[in-house]
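RECORD TYPE: inverse folding
INPUT: structure tokens
STRUCTURE:
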């Protein structure tokens, strides 16, 4: 179905064409018509599937078709990076309209945000904490909000934002349209939907554990002491155009970034200890190609929207399988192609096993030719334990216990 069949305003269709798009993605095709009808929407789709435009276009359509004053649409997101990404989508989709989005996030001064609020920006894109600050100071009234979006709701749950969300919802009119989007639809998200949405249209584009089809995935087992050297060798052999390397900790990211810079790589760093100015500058350099590789913690797993990321590297495997899906979703955006490389130390095998169970596949193991391994990597995945194995393991433990007692 082309965009012209969705019932969008001519100015929005003009913007979509100017961005080079003719057909909507699956989440856009299914969500936009329901949203245009004023229905509440509960949407689940892979990262990189185009869901931001799936709510941005209906919001802009309502502003165009029903003129009004003041702030009328509110989009709540978990991170500053995602807020910037959403604002960019509104700017692109609304380039031929008079409607602009204001961004309300922490890490920057209050003055410019208060000015935007005083001017009555029709759309607010906000992180929960800073939005609550402005509400408590009386700088913003949300009684006129007609449309609410909770984006990356599962991430907001993970980050502990639900009490803040409940407080914000208490200030909104109940006669509003609400759209909730999430990469997963677990029981906790269902509970949030139950008190947030009214008779929603439910849209699931793919299983929550699905990795985009265009992503090639491979695991390099390695002794932890050789991880840095193996990473450098892989980067040199892969000719990465634009890559994101994920580390588990902020200090680990800084340490790895310094090491890669010493080896001549063009590196940017993104994590929570960086100021908002540093984070914004780093992302701009990365988007424009002035930085080749971004070393990041999971703060960036859902906040990076760069179309040409060719590689994602898990320098440290994530402890939660869902985070793996979000990380590797930084490549193969919009149904393109990309590579996901994971370095696995022996003590990370349980994390990898959990990820493989979650996504429903066993990743190929590989070794880099001509790399001087101190310990030969194990390239055969361990066999999953059967019920009989578990019984035998319990029997052996009980036998050892009996022998000790006797």
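DESIGNED SEQUENCE:
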């Amino acid at each position: 179905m082309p965009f012209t069949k969705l019932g969008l305003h001519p100015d929005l269709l003009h913007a979509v064409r100017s961005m080079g798009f003719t057909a909507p993605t699956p989440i856009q095709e299914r969500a936009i018509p329901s949203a245009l009808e004023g229905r509440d929407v509960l949407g689940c789709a892979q990262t990189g599937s185009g869901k931001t435009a799936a709510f941005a276009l209906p919001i802009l359509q309502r502003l165009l078709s029903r003129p009004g004053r003041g702030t009328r649409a509110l989009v709540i997101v978990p991170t500053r990076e995602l807020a910037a990404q959403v604002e960019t989508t509104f700017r692109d989709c609304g380039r031929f309209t008079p409607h602009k989005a204001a961004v309300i996030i922490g890490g920057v001064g209050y003055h410019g945000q208060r000015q935007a609020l005083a001017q009555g920006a029709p759309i607010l894109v906000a992180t929960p904490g800073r939005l609550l600050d402005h509400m408590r100071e009386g700088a913003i009234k949300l009684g006129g909000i007609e449309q609410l979006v909770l984006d990356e709701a599962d991430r907001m749950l993970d980050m502990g934002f639900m009490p803040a969300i409940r407080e914000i919802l208490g200030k909104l009119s109940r006669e509003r349209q609400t759209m909730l989007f999430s990469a997963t639809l677990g029981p906790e998200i269902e509970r949030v939907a139950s008190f947030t949405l009214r008779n929603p249209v439910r849209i699931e584009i793919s299983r929550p554990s699905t990795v985009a089809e265009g992503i090639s995935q491979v695991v390099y087992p390695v002794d932890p002491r050789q991880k840095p050297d193996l990473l450098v060798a892989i980067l040199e052999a892969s000719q990465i155009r634009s890559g994101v390397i994920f580390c588990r900790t902020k200090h680990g990211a800084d340490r790895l970034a310094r090491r890669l810079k010493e080896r001549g790589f063009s590196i940017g760093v993104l994590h929570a200890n960086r100021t908002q100015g540093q984070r914004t500058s780093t992302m701009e350099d990365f988007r424009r190609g002035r930085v080749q590789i971004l070393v990041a913690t999971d703060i960036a797993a859902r906040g990076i929207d760069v179309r040409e990321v060719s590689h994602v590297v898990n320098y440290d495997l994530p402890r939660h399988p869902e985070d793996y899906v979000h990380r590797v979703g930084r490549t193969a955006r919009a149904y393109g192609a990309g590579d996901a490389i994971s370095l696995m130390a022996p003590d990370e095998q349980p994390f990898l096993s959990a990820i493989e169970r979650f996504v429903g596949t066993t990743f190929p193991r590989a070794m880099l030719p001509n790399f001087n391994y101190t310990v030969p990597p194990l390239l055969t995945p361990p066999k999953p334990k059967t019920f009989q194995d578990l019984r035998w393991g319990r029997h052996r433990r009980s036998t050892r216990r009996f022998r000790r007692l006797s």
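NOTES: The two ends are 75 Å apart (CA to CA).
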